[in-house]
Design goal:
It contains two helices and 27 strands. With 482 residues, the protein is mostly beta strands. Among the domains are: 156 residues, no CATH class; 177 residues, no CATH class. The protein starts with 61 loop residues before the first helix and ends with a strand.
Length: 482
């Protein structure tokens, strides 16, 4: 049966029908027959008050009484000292190990199918002496002296493949790569680095599922009642290996998701060998690096870490972080008979810089919506190519930093540049050739006022292009290259 939220995954289910009735204690002063109750020594019961000898009184010297009192005091002091030391040791152990809660932050829609036991970890016998700073800080993988490993297999036929981590000790790294081996399953290797086996075993690595057709790997560690020490940390290295197809065509994956805390992502060069219908990568406080990804829909989210790489999509692409830059190359392909293709780039307090190539399945036409936004960082968007007769809607915004946009010469439509306390600049290319090869002349009209430029660009007087470009910043220059 599925594990409920917050329950210790290793608790064993107990039968509710096999309960024993507690034995009642005997009444005070009674005993059972046959019991070994000591009997009085023969003749002891015959004595009486009338036949007892008079008590003999011994007079003790003051020195003797002092010695007895001193011995009793020393004995009491020893007992109290031992009790205090025992309490201190117990409290220290509780601080180091007993502060672990039995609550595991498992989402309510996640079911634990099988969790790795202590005996199932394959141990790497190579170890080294830990070298870590005395200050409480997160450690690099090389600082951990011990390593254990386990492997899972996830069927490619699943509707959703996912990786999930929760808890203060569940951070690490995620690598998504291609394998040289053929197969019908995704191999997931989980390596845990640690100082203490006890801490490794209180965390759980499990095969998990959600609703029908959704299967994945979950890494869960319990909440700590006290602040854990530096040697109580763990580091999980997860490697997801995608198999090669037997026919040499790209592997098709319906949906792949990660939701891992304090964990960087590293994605290999997947675009030539893997196509995702949908891929959602979610981290926090860490970067996401992608050599190349090819997907119909891609959502990439992190915080306090950069997003870098090559992303090829057809329907939608969302890249979002905070307090860090986004530096990417994007290829966006649109079907002119379908809905618009969407690109959203969003950061705060970091640069957003992108090179974008717009393409159409029919080599011309298509509709593209691009939103690029940040604050307190430079905004740069460079359109390397766009289809003839395509429509582009661009909305770019930043603050307190420069905004620079470069459009492909195929662009036709309106544009607006706006800033405050600085100049807006339009730069027109000379000797631009007609992208249709029909020797048409390009017309650029614009009006400039303080900090604002409004205008339009067309390749013929009868152009029906409806593109729009809007770029806004503050306290810095705004520049458009046509």
């Amino acid at each position: 049966m599925a594990q409920t939220q917050g329950q210790n995954p290793r608790d064993v289910k107990q039968s509710q029908t096999n309960q024993s009735v507690p034995v009642q204690p005997p009444l005070y002063g009674s005993y059972q027959s046959g019991s070994s109750v000591p009997r009085p020594y023969p003749g002891a019961a015959q004595s009486s008050a009338a036949t007892q000898a008079p008590a003999i009184v011994h007079n003790e010297s003051p020195a003797m009484r002092f010695s007895k009192a001193f011995i009793v005091a020393v004995a009491i002091w020893i007992l109290i000292t031992g009790l205090v030391q025992s309490m201190v040791i117990t409290a220290h152990r509780h601080h180091r190990y007993g502060g672990v809660s039995t609550h595991y932050p498992i989402p309510s829609d996640v079911f634990l199918d099988r969790c790795i036991t202590s005996e199932e970890w394959s141990r790497d016998l190579s170890s080294h002496i830990a070298d870590f700073p005395s200050l409480d800080a997160y450690l690099p993988p090389s600082a951990f002296p011990y390593t254990s490993k386990t492997t899972f297999s996830l069927p490619l036929s699943s509707d959703v493949l996912f990786l999930l981590s929760r808890g203060p000790l569940s951070s690490g790294s995620v690598d998504i790569v291609t394998s040289s081996e053929e197969g019908e399953a995704v191999k997931v290797d989980v390596v845990v680095k640690y100082f203490r086996e006890h801490v490794r075993d209180i965390s759980n690595v499990c095969l998990v599922s959600r609703k029908d057709g959704e299967i994945g790997i979950g890494i869960f560690s319990p909440e700590w009642a006290n602040h854990h020490r530096i040697e109580d940390q763990l580091y999980f290295e997860v490697v997801v290996s995608l198999p090669r197809t037997s026919n040499g065509k790209p592997l098709l994956i319906n949906r792949f998701e990660t939701d891992v805390l304090n964990t960087p992502h590293r994605i290999g060069d997947l675009s030539k060998s893997v196509i995702f219908q949908s891929i959602d990568l979610k981290g926090s406080n860490a970067p996401i690096y992608a050599k190349s990804i090819r997907a119909h829909n891609a959502n990439i989210h992190t915080s306090n870490g950069p997003i870098q790489g090559i992303f090829n999509t057809s329907h939608s692409l969302v890249l979002e972080t905070s307090n860090s830059p986004i530096r990417v190359q994007i290829g966006m392909t649109n079907d002119k008979d379908g809905p618009a293709s969407e690109v959203t780039l969003h950061s705060t307090n970091g640069a957003v810089e992108s090179d974008i190539s717009l393409m159409s399945t029919s080599k011309k036409g298509g509709t593209f919506n691009v939103k690029s936004r940040t604050s307190n960082g430079p905004l740069r968007v460079n359109f390397l190519a766009s289809p003839i007769d395509s429509t582009l809607h661009l909305n770019g915004k930043t603050s307190n930093n420069v905004a620079e946009i470069s459009l492909d010469t195929s662009y036709e439509g309106k544009f607006l540049l706006k800033t405050s306390n600085h100049a807006a600049t339009l730069r027109k290319r000379r000797d631009v050739e007609d992208p249709r090869g029909q020797e048409r002349k390009r017309t650029v009209n614009y009006k400039s006022t303080r900090g604002t430029i409004v205008g339009d660009v067309h390749w013929s007087n009868d152009s029906k292009a409806e593109g729009t470009v809007r770029v806004v910043t503050s306290n810095s220059p705004v520049v458009l290259d046509l």
